[in-house]
Specification:
- Helices cover 51% and strands 9% of the residues.
- The chain is of the alpha/beta class.
- Strands 1, 2, 3, 4, 5 and 6 form a 6-stranded parallel β-sheet that branches. The chain has a 3-stranded antiparallel β-sheet with strand order 7-9-8.
- Bound molecules: adenosine-5'-diphosphate (ADP) and magnesium ion.
- The site of magnesium ion (MG) has 5 residues, from helix 3.
């Protein structure tokens, strides 16, 4: 494992960084963002025709939901006739957010922070000053775990989830929020006039991972119904595939205020992902070089795309793993075979770190790697072991380290194979054979002087 030196490729930074694209990030979002034409059209026509909105954006982790929402916000903040204000950072949907007061305070705080970044002198306004104090106090209380720290006789909530002063009623906070939206519409911010606000709440998949918080989420949406219907406020809620179907639309009262069609996001195509990487490299090219060296051939991306079914984050971390394996200075892009060899090597090293394998265990693992799937019985008969030995001594450590998993059952017999992350081990063995053949061919050419 090596730390990757990106300068050797003529790049300032890692182009395979897995963070979402965001306004003000290392990469200019308007240039680094690719594809999504249909989704953008859908969003644009909605935002043009509606004067309020409550929309879910649904899809698997890593498909590009946050980047899409951020890109959309960026365009509407700077490049439209009807401009809508927004804060660059999204609000994370965590358990603490799931009540009306915390929700309002989070939004108000995010808007103030954005105004501070763009035009700090606006914060002298009386309303904003007041709001700033409220947000400030809540933040201090949140950090001190709800304990009264001001000693001013104000009563603050002590339980972990309430992060705001009790004496500030929800109704008052709601009025403040409405005044804030009004402020945004009445005042120019950095020379621009805005007609409303986009509120982006990210990552509902985290709070939707268990039944208890599922209920909380539904209650939460019930509780904030009136806020969601405010004019000139456009809400984007990002969550898992089933977010709209299994959460929002289970309650008519909640469902009715949402836009009835969730925006579903599927992975970018192979071509688009390759394009996104090219674009990033162009943007990150060191200023003193006349061109960058592409670290890997596009074929490598395509191969990883198939393995991870388009999950761009897994693709990027695999590329990182490949490059961290090669110590030599590269003068040309790595080919598929070279890359897979390196990735397999990296996974092999990872296994060695995770489990201490005996020679025999290793032999059986190698056998497993070459097969797509295999039953424990097969190992019993081929290697002459007892059933209990195979299951507890040979399979258990591999299973527990996430290296192998049950792939399917035929009849009642479970069949085992490599977990997705370790499939490169197959390529490792394939590439090893192929490279060896190449070298043999080349050296025989040399010998015979062809
Ligand atoms: N349209 C796009 N163009 C370029 N890069 C993208 C695009 N969509 C996503 N990405 C990249 O893919 C990765 C995952 O995207 P992200 O928005 O964080 O997904 P999600 O929010 O669905 O988990 C990030 O590194 C992001 O920069
Ligand atoms: Mg995200």
């Amino acid at each position: 494992m090596q730390i990757i030196n990106w300068q050797q490729f003529g790049l300032k930074k890692n182009p395979y960084d897995t963070l979402p694209l965001v306004e003000g990030g290392d990469l200019p979002i308007e240039k680094a963002f690719v594809g999504r034409e249909k989704e953008r059209e859908f969003l644009n026509s909605l935002f043009e025709s509606e004067n309020r909105l409550c929309l879910t954006i649904c899809g698997d982790v890593g498909v590009g939901k946050t980047s899409l929402a951020n890109f959309h916000k960026f365009i509407w903040k700077y490049n439209k006739q009807k401009l809508l204000f927004s804060f660059r950072r999204e609000i994370e949907a965590c358990e603490d957010l799931l009540d009306k007061k915390s929700f309002l305070i989070e939004i108000i705080g995010s808007v103030l922070r954005e105004i501070k970044l763009l035009q700090p002198d606006l914060l002298k306004d009386e309303l904003l000053l007041k709001l700033n104090r409220i947000v400030d106090i809540s933040q201090t209380i949140a950090m001190s775990g709800g304990v009264s720290i001001l000693g001013s006789g104000l009563d603050f909530g002590r339980d972990k989830t309430s992060i705001q002063p009790i004496q500030l009623s929800t109704a008052i906070l709601e009025e403040y929020f409405i005044s804030l939206v009004d402020f945004i519409k009445r005042n120019e911010i950095k020379g621009r006039k805005y007609s409303g606000l986009i509120v982006h709440i990210n990552n509902f998949d985290v709070v939707l991972s268990n039944d208890k918080t599922n209920k909380k989420v539904i209650n939460f949406f019930n509780e904030i119904r009136d806020i969601l219907q405010l004019r000139d406020v456009y809400f984007l809620f990002l969550g898992p595939r089933n977010f709209f179907k299994d959460i929002i639309s289970t309650q008519q009262r909640v469902k009715s205020i949402f836009y009835q069609i969730p925006l579903k996001i599927e992975p970018l195509s192979k071509k688009e992902i390759a394009m996104a990487f090219e674009e990033r490299m162009k943007l990150l090219q060191s200023s003193d070089v006349s061109g960058y060296i592409k670290p890997i051939e596009n074929e490598v991306i395509f191969r990883l795309y198939d393995l991870y079914q388009g999950d761009i984050r897994s693709i990027m971390s695999a590329v990182g793993a490949i490059l961290s394996q090669c110590s030599d200075r590269l003068t040309k892009s790595l080919s598929v075979d070279e890359s897979m060899l390196l990735l397999g090597e990296e996974r092999w090293e990872k296994i060695k770190m995770a489990v201490k394998l005996t020679e025999e265990q290793e032999t059986i693992l190698r056998y497993l790697i070459e097969k797509d799937k295999i039953s424990q019985k097969e190992i019993v008969s081929i290697f002459g072991k007892t059933q209990s030995n195979v299951s507890s001594y040979y399979f258990k450590p591999l299973r527990e380290a996430g290296i192998i998993e049950e792939k399917e059952k035929i009849g009642k017999v479970p069949y085992w194979g490599l977990a997705t992350d370790y499939i490169p081990l197959k390529w490792f063995i394939e590439s090893q054979k192929k490279l060896k053949k190449d070298i043999d061919d080349k050296s025989s050419q040399l010998t015979f002087g062809i």
